[in-house]
Target: Putative redox protein, regulator of disulfide bond formation
Amino acid sequence: MKATVKWVDGVMFVGESGSGHAVVMDGPPDHGGRNMGVRPMEMLLLGVGGCSSFDVVQILKKGKNDIVDCIAELTAERVDAVPAVFSKIHLHFIVKGRNLKESAVERAVKLSAEKYCSAAIMLGEAGVEITHDFEVIEV
Model:
């Protein structure tokens, strides 16, 4: 896997993934930015959410569950020191579908957390407390 990050100006950077997709990262004005993109630590948090959401959706689809939506709401805490690393991340999944069994969603979330989500597992091994919960909404 490869990526490039190019400085634009101030504290704005454009990251490009090896697959050719680009994203703008920028800081707040009090740090020299123009608030034109996500912060790098927000990108990391979004990566955890995307990785785990991918797993949950794929596991549920493979189980022939009639899933119509999956939203991961993430909250994170950072230490009050430099570097301001994450100390806690919580993922709350809202899974919508028809006749979804709570046990199936619980299993998908657990498998992502314990076996499949590389991003969350890597951060957890580095000492970040990562927790999960979910709710199922019938549509």
